[in-house]
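Do me a favour: review this protein, sequence plus C-alpha cells, and tell me how the chain folds. Record follows.
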Amino acid sequence: MRLLLISGLAIVLISCTHDIALQTPDGQPVGKAVLAFEGNSSGTIAIDRNGEAYRGQWIASKVDESAKIASAYGIGSKKYKDYKRGWGKYLRAGQSRLQSDKGGILNCEFQYRGTNIHGSCKSETEEFEFIGKPE
C-alpha cells in the first residue's frame, strides 16, 4: 500500500506543470510561461515572449531557512525541529538559461514553495517578472 502511495505521489510530481503570466516590472503583460516539474528540484521551462519561444532546463536547490526559523520561533520549538527533520514545504531557488530558435538568451531565477512561484528573467535588453500561483 505504501509503495502504491509513493508511486502515485511521484507521478503527480513528475506531471506537475504551472502556467505563469509574464509581466514587466510595472505590471504590463509580455507573454506566458509553462514551468514543468520533473521531481521537486528540476524540470523544464518554456516561455513565449512577444512571439518568440524560449526553452530550457531548470534546476533548484533548497534555501536554508533554519536561522530565520530559529530566530522567529526558537531552537527548541516544534516548527524548528520539524524543519530540521525535513518536514514541511521548503523554499527552493531555481535557475535556468533559456534559448530561442532565433538565438535569443534569457537568464531566469525564481523561488517556489509548494505551488507559489515568483521570479524574473533577463535578456541583454529587458527584464521581466513571472508570478504563478496555480489553483
In short: The helical segments are 2-14, 66-73, 78-85. Residues 82 and 123 are 40 Å apart (CA to CA). Residues 2-132 form one domain. Strands lie at 17-23, 29-37, 42-49, 52-62, 92-100, 105-113, 116-122, 127-132.
